Amino acid sequence: MQLLGDIDELLDWFNEAEKEINSAPAISTDPAALRTQLRDHKVLNDDISNQKGKVGSRFVPENHLQLDGSMRFTRECESRIYENDV
Questions:
Q1: Is the CB of residue 21 less than 8 Å from the CB of residue 45?
Q2: Nearest to 11 by CA among 59, 77, 69
Q3: Which of 16, 19, 47, 75 has the highest Cβ tally under 10 A?
Q4: Of 47, 62, 67, nearest to 3 (Cα)?
Q5: What is the reported pLDDT for 33?
Q6: DSSP state, 86?
Q7: How far apart, in Å, do the first and last CA atoms of the chain sit?
Q8: Residue environment code for 24-63, b if the CB has 16+ CB neighbours within 10 A, otherwise e
Q9: What is the pTM of this model?
Q10: Are 58 and 6 in contact (CB under 8 A)?
């Protein structure tokens, strides 16, 4: 159930980030304002990268476990088939 909680947390974060992006002001032509917008964009981009890293580190191990378990099951089935053929 922890996995579902993590997914909900990530979805909430991405939904908030989407709202922030959609409500951001238009790109400014004023250099000072543009620097501020660029700084804010970099912060958001770093946050997105961190969230993507969390996704990778949180969900990839389960995939490896599933694959590893599947491979073990396949090897076990193959060995039983070969045992019955002999």
A1: no
A2: 59
A3: 47
A4: 62
A5: 93
A6: -
A7: 45
A8: eeeeeeeeeeeeebeeeeeeeeeeeeeeeeeeeeeeeeee
A9: 0.55
A10: yes
